[in-house]
Amino acid sequence: MAKLKITQVRSAIDRNKRQKRTVKALGLGKLHRTVIHNDTPQIRGMIDAVRHLVEWEKVEE
């Protein structure tokens, strides 16, 4: 299964609570922190909700 490498590149300060909770649920919270998740529709939806705060790329394992 493909994986997604997600990096937070912008702060969640002054964002609404829903976006802050989404960033936290992805395992992020500090700038330039990177996490790897399975490529699922749920994770893709979370990325789409905070696409202006994160960068992501597909990683083959």
Outline the structure in words:
The chain is an alpha+beta fold and 61 residues long. The protein has one domain (3-52): Ribosomal protein L30/L7 (Ribosomal Protein L30, Chain: A, 2-Layer Sandwich), CATH 3.30.1390.20. It is 30% helix and 28% strand. It is built from two helices and three strands; from the N terminus they run E-H-E-H-E. The protein has a three-stranded antiparallel beta sheet with strand order 2-1-3, with no helix packed on it. The model has no long low-confidence stretch (mean pLDDT 96).
Q: What's the SSE pattern?
A: EHEHE
Unreliable residue stretches:
none
Broad shape: globular
Category from helices, strands and their pairing: alpha+beta
Q: Give the beta-strand count.
A: 3
Going by CATH, the architecture would be 2-Layer Sandwich
List the helices and strands and how they pair.
Layout: E1 3-8, H1 17-25, E2 34-38, H2 41-49, E3 54-59
Features:
alpha+beta; 3-stranded antiparallel β-sheet; globular; Ribosomal Protein L30, Chain: A; 61 residues; 3 strands; 2 helices
Short description:
The protein is 30% helix and 28% strand. It has helices at residues 17-25, 41-49; strands spanning 3-8, 34-38, 54-59.
